[in-house]
Amino acid sequence: MISHVCRSTTLAFLISVFAWFPAGCDDSGSTKDPIQSLTTTEKADLGTALPSAEQKQSFTISDVRLTEEAPYVLPGSGTLDFIYDAQDTLIGYTRLVNTGVGCHDGACAAIKFILVFDPSLEYVHVFHPAGTTAGEFFKGLDNNTTDSEAFTLDDWDTLYGILADPPTVLLALTDRLDMVDAETGATFEEYQGSVVHNAAYTTYTVLTYILHTREIIQSDFLTGVK
């Protein structure tokens, strides 16, 4: 399921112009590489979200920005890609994220996923990169505080819907630990229906990276001002 949103022609034009500035550094401490062709695997990964993707330009996210995602962000999350079609038209952005989810007991496994945005910085899709052997999305089990199971297709559909139109209660949340009972692991009633069942931390974690990555693109790579 992919969200469909109105495109901002003006913003997309400005983004495209900016993306062709010479490779180098900006005041945010971020750097960017020359445009290069996508690999076969990368094109396959983006086949659903950005089917015309052919090229990318990779940017290094500054240490300052990564520090803002501490203590959860893990190595391997520091690259942002501008995605182009064969005609050199900017068609979106992607970011690979490797991160912890911050559950109460610290026992939750880290997750790995790719975020996709359109040229207007609207969220488009989230998925695991091809060949992922660790970092898949798991959820807890009812009345069981020790075991878990992988997301089902229904869970993915629920997650897609939440990310496409985030509930106000999640956007207003300031501490992820407030969603879940520390002793039972149960999601508090206030947040039920706003997260994937038994996967509150994963749901919220992905959402926070969508919001922060969008901020990084807009502030550090489109305006040059942090």
Description of the structure:
- The structure is a single chain.
- The protein contains 6 helices and 8 strands.
- It has 226 residues and is an alpha+beta fold.
- It has one domain.
- The protein has a 6-stranded antiparallel β-sheet with strand order 1-2-3-4-5-6, with helices on one face. It has a two-stranded antiparallel sheet with strand order 7-8.
- A hairpin with a 2-residue loop joins strand 7 and strand 8.
- The longest helix is centred in the last third of the chain and has 23 residues.
- It is globular, with a radius of gyration of 18 Å.
- The N terminus is likely disordered.
Can you give keywords for this protein?
single chain; 226 residues; alpha+beta; 6 helices; 8 strands; disordered N terminus
For the record, the count of structural domains works out to 1
Q: Give the integer mean of the pLDDT values.
A: 85
Number of helices: 6
Helical content (DSSP H or I, runs of 4+): 25-40%
Strand content: 15-25%
Cα radius of gyration in angstroms: 18 Å
Strand order of the largest sheet: 1-2-3-4-5-6
Reading the helices and strands in chain order gives: HEHEHEEEEEEHHH
Pairing-aware structural class of the strands and helices? alpha+beta
Instruction: Categorize the overall geometry.
Output: globular
Distance between the termini: 33 Å
Tally of DSSP β-strands: 8
Low-confidence stretches: 1-25
The biggest sheet amounts to: 6 strands, antiparallel
